[in-house]
Structure formats: structure tokens, C-alpha cells
Amino acid sequence: MQRQEFLQQLWLDFIHLHPEIGGLRLWPVGSEPEFLALLTLNHGPFAADNLSPTLLKFGYRTVERHAMADRGLLVSLYAPPDDGPWLVLGELQLGTLTKEPRDILQALVEKAHPADTSDQNLLANGRPWPMPEWNTFCLLQRMHPLAAWLAVMGPRLHHVGFDCGRLGNDLTTLDMQLEQAGLDGSNDRHHGVFPVSALLNYRFYPTCSQRFAFAGGDEHRVTLGGLALIQPCIPNNHDRSAQLLLPQHTRCEIA
Hints:
Distance between the termini: 30 Å
Order of helices and strands: HHEHEEEHHHEHHEEEEE
């Protein structure tokens, strides 16, 4: 597999779950995201240390790592070898969860079929373990929303982020256009997968699933992720916006 095929698989899996985003025509077709926000967990083949060799083979290099204790996350920022999208890989640390959600999520992960854990692209294969029951999902949602999301979705692309400047427009205009297209945005930069730096103007547009069939047969709609728009607060910055995405106080060095 080559890097472009890897990115294409991520995108196709994403728009299958988010057809409203795949159908947007507010910017030129083929416009690339500034970053792709991926979510996984530190267990077995899905751990970042096991995924990283594949990303390095595709030409990505680790630029920064960030520790976010309040979310139980380690976040790695990967730079592409060209002008393509950066990768933001968030890894949920199971040891930071309280016993009940940790046991629930670990039990689900351990039911993953071996055939679903050996593919080169484990981030676009869908959920490799059985669907939890609705009540189990609700319990996880109350205790740790990221654990609940992983239980239902598995390791995969959570949301895509676009740089307004690279789309040729400003955030205010694009926000109005997205609202007209039926997507309601929020400027809350603290309660998503990871906090967003104050160096960027930011809007997030959550999207919901069609009805999901849970293990008990219940069907419900859940928030899957969505779309982010970012725009540097300081114009004419020569860095890529993705380099400004994560707050510097969360940056860490991990041996």
C-alpha cells in the first residue's frame, strides 16, 4: 500500500459515515484537508507504537507529542512528506480510565477477530470487535465519551480539519455557508477529542449517524465526529496551520 491509497481509504471510510460532508460543494473538488484527526487506544495492534511504523513507511515523521491527562490521551502530530494533510493521532490510555469503563472497553477489544487486526491499515477497517449494547454505550458515554466513541466506531478517522486560507475563503464566510448547508458549528475548543490552541480561530461541525443497530437490537443515532475549520489568528504565518493546532503547554518528550 502507498500513502495515497492509505489516505484514500481513510477518506472513503469517513464519507461513508459522513455523507453530508462528502456531499459538500463549498470549495473546489479535490481540496485536501489540513489535518486528519485519528483516534485509537493503547491496546495490542491498535496501539500508536504498533501503528507508527506503517505511518513512517508512508513518509510521515513524528513532529511533536502531547500529553492530555484530563482526557487520558497521548497525541502524536505527524508531518507529511509533501503538502498533504498532517495526521493527529490520539491514543486513549486505558490505564487512565476508572475500572468499570476500562474493563468494558478492554473486553470488547479482546473480542476482535484476528483477521481484523492484521491488515496494514487498521485505521480504515471499521470496528473490529462486536457492537456493544446500547446501555453499555450510554454508561461509557457518561463516564468517558472517547471510550464510548471507540467502543462503537473502533480505531479510525474521527474528524477532518480544513484550513480556510487553503480553501480560498475566510472562516466567517465558510461558517455561514456550512450553516446554510445544514451544519451547525461550535467554537468550543476545549471539549472535543483534544483542546485547540488559541493561536487558531476554530469551528467544529458535529455530524450524527444514521441509526446504528446495537447488540441488543436497539437502533439509535450517535454523534460520530465531524468537520473542523481553522484559521490562524496571525496572518502571513509561514508554518502550516496544523503545526499550531495543539496547545504548547501539552507538549511533552516521551523517551
